[in-house]
Amino acid sequence: MSAPLSLSRPLARLMAHPLPHWAEVALLPVLNLLLALGLTALLVWAMGSDPVAALAALAVGSLGSADAIGYTLYYATNMAFTGLAVAVAFQGGLFNIGAEGQAYLAGLGVALVALNLGALPPWLLVPLAMLGGAGFGAAWAAIPGWLQARRGSHIVITTIMFNFLAASLMVYLIVNVLIAPGSMAPETRRFPTAADLPDLSAFGFPSSAPVNLSLGLALLAALAVWLLVWRSPWGYALRALGESAEVARYAGIDAGRMIVQVMALSGALAAGVAVNELLGAQHKLLLAFTGGYGFTGIAVALMGRNHPLGVLLAALLFGALTQGGAELAFEVPDVPSEIVVLIQGLVILLTGALGNMLRRPVVVVLALLRRGG
Amino acid sequence: MQPQDGAAPPAIELRGIDKRFGAVHANRAVDLTVHRGTIHGIIGENGAGKSTLMAILHGFYQADAGTILVNGRAATIRDSRDAIRLGIEMVHQHFMLVERFTVLENVMLGAEGGPLLARGAARARAAQKRPGAAHGGTGAPPPPPARARAELKRLGEAYGLSVDPDARIDELPVGAQQRVEILKALYRGAEVLILDEPTGVLTPQEADDLFRVLRALRDQGRTVLLITHKLREIMAITDRVSVMRAGQMVAHRETAATSPEELGELMIGRRLAAPAPRPAPQAGPVLLQAEGLSVRDAAGVERVKQVSLSLRGGEVLGIAGVAGNGQGELLEALAGMRAPSAGRIFLRGQQVFPGRGFNAAALRRQGLAHVPEDRLKSGLLRRQSAAACAILGHQDDPSWRRFGLLSPRAIAAHAARLMQAYDVRPPDPALRSGLFSGGNQQKLILGREIERDPAVLLVGQPTRGVDIGGIDSIHQRILACRAAGKAVLVVSVELDEILALADRIVVMFDGRIMGELTLAEADERRLGLMMAGMTREEAA
Q1: What is residue B71's DSSP assignment?
Q2: Does B82 share its domain with B103?
Q3: CATH number of the domain enclosing B465
Q4: Residue B390 lies in a domain
Q5: Closest residue on chain B to A227 (Cα)
Q6: What are the distances in angstroms from CA B126 to CA B42, B105, B147, B152?
Q7: What is the DSSP letter of B537?
Q8: Minimal Cα distance from B449: which residue of A?
């Protein structure tokens, strides 16, 4: 019968249209974000609080003042580094879950340089401390890379386990070896001031805000990642490997070497967290300073579609949620502070796991609009 | 029009079937009448719309417009279950069999219906494990497998489809696997059997066996729809043939009243040029040589066993064989993609294996070019642009760099030149390579590889999935390389292609070379016997 056949016809025609690029990269994420915020509002309302006040507190708390923006950018810096770390590995088809541990180990590298070479002038000490951090982060990430390349040990498993190894190792070192003499707190002595990264008071941020020069470093890192991955032969080989190991084998790309290299790069990028936290804000090595940024970086990379620009935007969003959430808990006391974790979870769920849920409706609506207009 | 009984309605009638995929109009107002008890061929180039039409008949796609009549009654086919209920069964090009199941289990799968399926299959497997069950000799046999076994036996005898019901699928040769597919369809009560390019993986002798089975099916009143792009098969076995071109049905013929030439012209819409006679090979120096080469696959299984061959400039060496007899692994080893487990390889007189830095990139730098067997899996970055694919394997070449960085503009310009020279359509370097047709993808890869002026060109399955118009131009390119003094190695499962290109032919079976024939010595029968495992002398 032709009746049921012709019924499916308009829909089939509409579905055949792919999404335009702008809708793919901008409209879908924004819609998903709005949906996440809407669901949050619903939950807040269900808990008996005022959703409008809660969302307002979130917005004002993250972007309402220079101080708030300073904090937002400070958090975003960490997330940009870990987001880039995850994204660059992902371009090679590797899911690096270990940015947390890599950033933690990088803190050791930063601290060793800052504590032992304190007599050096700032212009030499700061870059050396950064290099120390990058080196430690890279080495810590390269080991799972090597295990994957040579032994076939799955990178997801090994990087997860290396997070635990890093945590245990750092607890031992900080509590038993590096702890400041005579102190009860599990942290080193303060780094020499020569190792302090300048704050951004020159750009109008109050010096109370922890945002520092690392922000510029993160922007440079994003640019460098873009050039390296999309404009260098190495990056071409990396993306070829990421698309298909078979194609890489055909093209004569040494997959093992690429895996070790890109994991080292990923670890070095994660080290940016140590630079931002230790040289920029804390000025000492302390327990668990990485605060879960390595894991947030996975969500940031996911939402940013593993592209440096997307990662920067997603980092900004997650930074704002973190800062705004802290203010929300303060301003609207009957809303538990865990609500921010919930929002982040919803954002991850909707942009990542359910990222394509709205694709179908958007395609249909756009096609209808096009036909109507 | 109708050969036998004018009163009986046709088994299948399609009226005005229309189907679009976005910009592609895959089927345009297609009409088709298939009479009961006939073998009906549908022929057309790749992309002509044959497979789409059959997918609509089998419920995989829904037509945008048009009517399907089965036995004269309008039918709605929403999915393959509807099709099966109407007695329409499909034997796919790639078999849909569970490799770890036995023949019996596979045949039963999906035929029990509802929750009984799981129980029936589990029982069949349990029966399998009991000693003696294979001979059907245990007491109180559970009904479904026993019934299936009896039915299988009956069908096997009726149509000459003998297969051991207790053999595991992955232990069976390809021809037998195909018989299982057909048995499965018949077991479910197929009245109309659709076969999609069924001989692609068979030796000529296995194809003959298949044709015997199809004739038996027809003689007992079943209807067979045969989709193919091989004119020979159409002429050999069909009663009627319909020709498709560019989504349209262009002609229906009684097979007895047509000729391969006419069908060929109808398929491509113009006269086929007769192949130009090839000048005798100008055999030059040996450019590629393998001695006692053995190659293991990723699972450690030895797929190439002690193969020696040599390749001179100015000649084409063809490697024939049924797919999966080690040709693929041999090609990969010669191309540097896979290190052999034993043996030696010389490229332009230099020993490259065993040797340091034996890999695809190094051999490429030393003048070897390689068009891989499976272009989608190995030869192209499907999600990236044609431009990106045009430098695959040559990404380190400084000529696409500006200030040390890859220049998208230089790469696009290179790709545009390549696409122009090798007639890749559409000539748009920004288009994703996965969106090109098979023939155009292949031309892009061939262009990329030949453009470098290599000394040795390895080509795997030059025209797999390429339409007739494209086949000719690809063959011309390969022969031009031969004329230019390059050493060319062609691996193909298509005997026609081997015969059209090669000066010397080696046949591979089970990882070994069964013998070498010159073009003059080679004929289809002899090659077929060697492909089935006979030596050169036995097959003489």
Answers
A1: T
A2: no
A3: 3.40.50.300
A4: no
A5: B405
A6: 42, 11, 15, 18
A7: T
A8: A251
A-chain CB neighbours of B64 within 8 Å are 5-6, 9, 12-13
- Count of structural domains, chain B: 3
**Residue of B365, B299, B366, B363 lying closest to B331 (CA atoms):** B363
Is A233 in Cβ contact with B395 (below 8 Å)?
yes
List the single residue in A with minimal CA-CA distance to B21: A16
Closest to B52 in 3D by CA, of B103, B14, B9, B105 = B14
The answer, yes or no, to whether residue B117 has pLDDT greater than 80, is no
Q: Write out pLDDT tens, residues B406-425.
A: 999 999 999 999 999 998 88
Q: Which residues on adjacent β-strands are paired with residue B69?
A: B13, B74
Question: Does any domain span residue B435?
Answer: no
Enclosing domain of residue B69:
1-87+191-271
Question: Where is mean pLDDT largest: A8-17, A90-99, B435-444?
Answer: A90-99
- Residue A17 within a domain: no
pLDDT grade for B111, boundaries at 50, 70 and 90? low
Residue A369: both structure tokens together: 């609009």
Q: Calculate what percentage of chain A has a pLDDT beyond 90.
A: 65
* Nearest beta carbon to residue A251 from set B360, B382, B384: B360
| B459 shares a domain with B369 | yes
**Residue B430 contacts A, CB cutoff 8 Å:** no
More confident residue, B41 or B91: B41
For residues B272-296, average pLDDT: 83
For B448, the 3-state DSSP assignment is helix
Please name the amino acid found at residue B203: T
CATH number, position A103: 1.10.3470
Q: Which residues pair with B224 in a beta bridge?
A: B39, B193
Q: Give contacts of A5 with chain B, Cβ < 8 Å.
A: 62-67, 76
Per-residue pLDDT tens over the stretch A210-258 = 999 999 999 999 999 999 999 999 999 999 999 999 999 999 999 999 9
Q: Which residues of B are less than 8 Å from A228 in CB distance?
A: none
Inter-residue long-range contacts of B517-525, CB under 8 Å, 24+ positions, other chains counted = B522/B498, B524/B204, B524/B495, B524/B499, B525/B204
Nearest to B461 by CA among B493, B426, B413: B493
